[in-house]
Amino acid sequence: MRNVSPSVLGMIKRDFSKNDFVQYLPNENISRNVMANLMRAFKHDYSFDPSYGYTLEGLLAVSAPEPLQDFESFWRTRYEKIHELSPEPVLLGSPRKNKNWLEQDISYQSTRGAKIGGWCLTPESEHVERVVIILHGYGGREQPDDQWNLPNTAFLFPCARGMGRSPHPPVSPISAWHVLHDIQDPNLYIHGACVEDVWMAASAALALFPQCAGCVGLMGTSFGGGIGAMALAWDKRIARAHFCVPSFGNQALRLQCKTTGSGASVQAMHRRYPEAIERTLSYHDAAIAARWIQVPVHFACAVFDPMVAPPGQFSIYNAVPSEKKCFVLPAGHFSYPGQEITERELLQEIHEFFSRL
Questions:
Q1: Closest to 11 (Cα-Cα) out of 349, 336, 339
Q2: Model confidence pLDDT, tens digit, residues 305-334
Q3: Per-residue pLDDT for 48 more than 50?
Q4: Contact, 162 vs 172, CB < 8 A?
Q5: What percent of the chain has pLDDT above 90?
Q6: Helix and strand tally (H, E) in the chain?
Q7: pLDDT confidence of residue 28
Q8: Between residues 283 and 28, which one has the greater pLDDT?
Q9: pTM to 2 decimals?
Q10: What is the pLDDT of residues 210-262, one digit of tens each?
Q11: What phi, psi does 300 have (nearest 5°)?
Q12: Is the pLDDT assigned to residue 99 strictly greater than 60?
């Protein structure tokens, strides 16, 4: 292992386009099994193995649970109702220059009286021809990302209800409590409401940029990746998506995987009220929802992750029946040698992927 340079760690990549496995390695003498063992060899202070004993082959074999009989109708009914609402998006204040972008604050209306706040970036000197909605992780968001190199593209950065610029009392902005809000009721659970916020973000985007119909993209990381996958399954206005270390996949399995993330709060609640928690999570499972996704999706899934268990991430990827690609990360929610190289390569792939939006 000492003979493997940090740059090798950063260049591990897998391509699973249309279910065909293609291997990309900087050194053909390095086998997949050696690499999988290397990822589990990261030094850490956790009391558990953040690879959970899975090899890459094992992760690619993790299937999604079967949906409840009314799973599809549960979500389709909710999606149909959001079209009865007007997002009433408002761009606030004068545009501020941010590199090659013009940045403005944005707000729009969502379901159950929630007002969603965030940011909008538009090109400084180009016409807007496509729009991408970017969802944050459970750490929230304090500012928009400005590293994008996609011409003629506007970006929306909504904050999930209860977090950041979208306060929604009594919903807590603290992830350990946010994840539990109304978890006793599948119809009221906060994650379902956050999915509705994504659908309303698409409505807001098209109200602001009606010329972008058919050219709406979606990105989400961790919390945003799982919420995004659940939203994408039903919203046909979204034409292309990227999810990085997506959460909330294969909830039954997640309940068994020790974690440092928001899942620990859910596991503690599950020990007290197992039947109620399992019922709600059965409707809010990104891996189950993924089987209804019908558009191209780019994934970045980690083989080592102490916050979002890798089998849950790959369960979402594995369930998608449409065109898909996966960039395999050495680790998620964890710093590792070569990380900057990995992130640059991933960003390049994301740019290429959305250039076809």
A1: 339
A2: 999 999 999 999 999 999 999 999 999 999
A3: yes
A4: yes
A5: 81
A6: 13, 11
A7: 31
A8: 283
A9: 0.89
A10: 999 999 999 999 999 999 999 999 999 999 999 999 999 999 999 999 999 89
A11: -130, 105
A12: yes
By CB atoms closer than 10 A (0-12, 13-18, 19+), residue 11 is middle
- DSSP, collapsed to helix, strand or coil, labels residue 54 as coil
288/251 Cα distance (integer angstroms): 9
Q: What are the extents of the domains in the chain? A: 64-141+155-354
Nearest to 129 by CA among 240, 209, 218: 209
How far, in Å, CA of 270 to CA of 203, rounded? 35
DSSP single-letter state for residue 159: P
d(C-alpha 221, C-alpha 60), whole Å: 20
CATH number of 64-141+155-354: 3.40.50.1820
Q: Give yes or no for residue 19 having a pLDDT over 50.
A: no
CA 289, CA 67: separation in Å to the nearest integer? 8
Burial string for 62-94 (b: 16+ CB within 10 Å, else e) reads bebbebeeebbebbeebbeebeeeebebeeeee
| Bridging pattern class, strands 90-98 and 297-302 | unpaired
Q: What is the DSSP string of 230-271?
A: HHHTT-TTEEEEEEES--S-SHHHHTTS--SSTHHHHHHHHH
Residue recorded with tokens 């995004």: 228
**Burial of 200 (C-beta count, 10 Å sphere; 0-12/13-18/19+):** buried
